[in-house]
Design brief:
This protein has a two-stranded antiparallel sheet. The protein is globular. α1 crosses α3 (about 55-65). Helices cover about 45% and strands about 10% of the residues. It has a single domain (about 15-90), classed as Winged helix-like DNA-binding domain superfamily/Winged helix DNA-binding domain (Arc Repressor Mutant, subunit A, Orthogonal Bundle). It is mainly alpha-helical and about 110 residues long.
């Protein structure tokens, strides 16, 4: 069986690629979710070494506005993100993906 390449489409804009990698990361972090250190580490290793926490949070806020993730802020300034039901469906290819997320086309 061949491996499945779920890397984002490099022809897509940077924010859309980040959103896809964040969804995949949070899908793998289920059911607990992940904090900024984990998310930033994955994005920097997998995609853009120059990514910042601010950029990650901006894209998470976008995904939250679409009902794909939830971001929980703590009083001390810490935060974490979790995948919502619809985010699971998008990351697992069980529903269509609207524009704005560089999800590769399903070929299997």
């Amino acid at each position: 069986m061949s491996s499945v390449n779920l890397q984002p489409d490099p022809s897509q804009p940077r924010p859309a690629q980040l959103r896809w990698v964040l969804l995949l990361t949070l899908n793998n972090a289920r059911p607990l979710g992940a904090g900024p250190d984990i998310l930033l580490g994955v994005v920097q290793k997998a995609l853009f070494p120059d990514s910042t926490i601010i950029e990650i949070r901006r894209e998470l806020d976008y995904l939250q506005s679409r009902g794909l993730v939830s971001v929980t802020d703590q009083p001390n300034g810490a935060w974490s993100a979790k995948l919502e039901r619809y985010g699971v469906d998008v990351s697992e290819y069980t529903v269509d993906c609207d524009p704005g997320i560089a999800r590769p086309k399903k070929y299997w």
